[in-house]
């Protein structure tokens, strides 16, 4: 199941019944590998579900502790069979979490070609030896013709945004679409959108899937109520 589909299914049924759902990934994931040697590694760090999917596709086994950034990634890790420790939803909180828990390492951060937070470097500087390995690359994508046609309709559009890179791409692709509002997982993601979209952007209370589910559900409720009164 794609992360977009998983997010959709995490929304309450009442919210899903109220809207149409369109998937148009603005980043495509291409597994590159290889897996590094993990013989001496005490735990694995995952800051995205995509990294977990790549790890599994490359033949990795759930035989070590998985330290994950948030609850969405945790769900994927648990389904795969990992023993999971969940951090606070951001790279900064993950680094603090590892240090507070007293992990000795060595750890390995498995990630995509583009990642934020310098997790491995910061942990190593703080005394927890942490390597890193790139398992996949992320390629920017555009709106499909189907998406462009759907977005041309005079209807409210809610766009959940989960990373600064996709926020920048979404901002470029949605230029001129004034009926689109944005649900950002964090302030950093919101700030990556063009300044003119700030008034149409709301930020989740917590930077994880639960926070985004709460925010998007409320935005759907508000949009449906507004539509009924116009």
**Distance between the terminal alpha carbons, to the nearest Å?**
37 Å
Would you tell me the structural class of the helices and strands?
alpha/beta
CATH architecture classification name of the largest domain: 3-Layer(aba) Sandwich
Strand fraction: 15-25%
Number of domains: 2
Number of strands: 9
Main sheet: which strands, in order across? 1-6-5-2-3-4
- Main sheet? 6 strands, mixed
What is the arithmetic mean of pLDDT?
93
Shape: elongated
Number of helices: 10
Radius of gyration: 19 Å
CATH class of the largest domain: Alpha Beta
The helix content, as a percent range, equals: 40-55%
Unreliable segments (pLDDT under 50, ≥5 consecutive)?
Answer: none
Order of helices and strands: HHEEHEHEHEHEHEHEHEH
CATH topology of the largest domain: Rossmann fold
Layout: helices, strands, pairs:
Layout: H1 3-10, H2 13-18, E1 27-31, E2 43-46, H3 49-57, E3 65-68, H4 71-80, E4 83-86, H5 91-101, E5 107-112, H6 119-125, E6 130-140, H7 145-151, E7 157-161, H8 164-173, E8 180-184, H9 187-192, E9 201-203, H10 209-228
Describe this structure in words.
Helix 3 packs parallel to helix 4 (71-80). Helix content is 41%, strand content 20%. The protein has two domains: 3-26 and 142-228, Rossmann fold; 28-139, 3-Layer(aba) Sandwich (Rossmann fold), CATH 3.40.50. By secondary structure, the protein is α/β, with parallel strands linked by helices. The strands form two sheets. A six-stranded mixed β-sheet has the order 1-6-5-2-3-4. It has helices at 3-10, 13-18, 49-57, 71-80, 91-101, 119-125, 145-151, 164-173, 187-192, 209-228; strands spanning 27-31, 43-46, 65-68, 83-86, 107-112, 130-140, 157-161, 180-184, 201-203. It is elongated.
């Amino acid at each position: 199941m794609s992360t977009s589909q998983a997010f959709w299914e995490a929304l309450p049924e009442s919210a899903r019944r109220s809207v149409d759902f369109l998937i148009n990934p603005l980043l495509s994931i291409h597994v590159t590998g290889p897996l590094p040697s993990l013989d001496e590694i005490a735990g694995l760090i995952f800051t995205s579900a995509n990294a977990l999917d790549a790890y599994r596709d490359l033949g990795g086994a759930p035989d070590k502790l998985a330290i994950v950034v948030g609850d969405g990634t945790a769900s994927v890790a648990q389904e795969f069979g990992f023993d999971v420790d969940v951090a606070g939803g951001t790279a900064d909180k993950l680094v603090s979490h590892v240090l507070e828990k007293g992990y000795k390492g060595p750890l390995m951060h498995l990630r995509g070609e583009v990642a934020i937070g310098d997790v491995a470097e910061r942990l190593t500087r703080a005394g927890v030896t942490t390597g890193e390995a790139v398992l996949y690359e992320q390629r920017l994508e555009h709106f499909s013709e189907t998406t462009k046609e759907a977005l041309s309709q005079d209807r409210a559009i809610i766009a959940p945004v989960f990373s600064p890179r996709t926020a920048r791409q979404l901002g470029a692709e949605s230029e001129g679409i004034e009926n689109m509002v944005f649900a950002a997982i964090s302030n950093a993601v919101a700030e990556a959108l063009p300044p003119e979209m700030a008034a149409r952007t709301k930020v989740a209370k917590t930077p994880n899937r639960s926070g985004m589910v709460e925010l998007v559900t409320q935005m759907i409720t508000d949009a449906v109520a507004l539509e009924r009164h116009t």
